[in-house]
Amino acid sequence: MNLFVETPQIGTTAAHAAVAAAVNHARSLGITINAAVTDGSGTLMAFLRMNGAFLHSIDIAVDKAYTAASFGFPTSKWSGVIGDDELLRIGLNRRERLVLFGGGLPIVSDGARIGGIGVSGGSAEQDEACARAGLQALGLV
């Protein structure tokens, strides 16, 4: 009987490259952000805060990465998942670390979910664009 399974995870070098690329994209947009990468289990692997980025956005960026890694789809897609289900929306809003707005993307390589990237500091669209730049730096978009 096999007592453990090996799970592909994002490596440290790749995680750092992704947050650096997200920050570089934020500079091109003229915004300041916090960027985080988690592994597939939602454990923080890399984090980068730009000078002047909102302090509350630190945890939001980490939680966006955590949410994207744990569910495997962009955090911006939650409105479509919830739809008109008011009880689901209320219930999900009470879950710690679950982010229901844009800026978090899963990191998928060769069909395996290996992590998540989350960005906070701009609009939801800007945050997602910065996260996507992180994925592009890894050759995943």
UniProtKB/TrEMBL annotation:
Entry-linked Pfam families: HbpS-like
Signal peptide: none
InterPro entries per UniProt: GlcG_carb_metab_protein (IPR052517), PduO/GlcC-like (IPR005624), PduO/GlcC-like_sf (IPR038084)
Transmembrane segments: none
Top-rank taxon: Bacteria
PANTHER family referenced in this protein's UniProt entry, alphabetically: PROTEIN GLCG (PTHR34309:SF1), SLR1406 PROTEIN (PTHR34309)
Protein name: ATP:cob(I)alamin adenosyltransferase
Annotated source species: Verminephrobacter eiseniae (strain EF01-2)
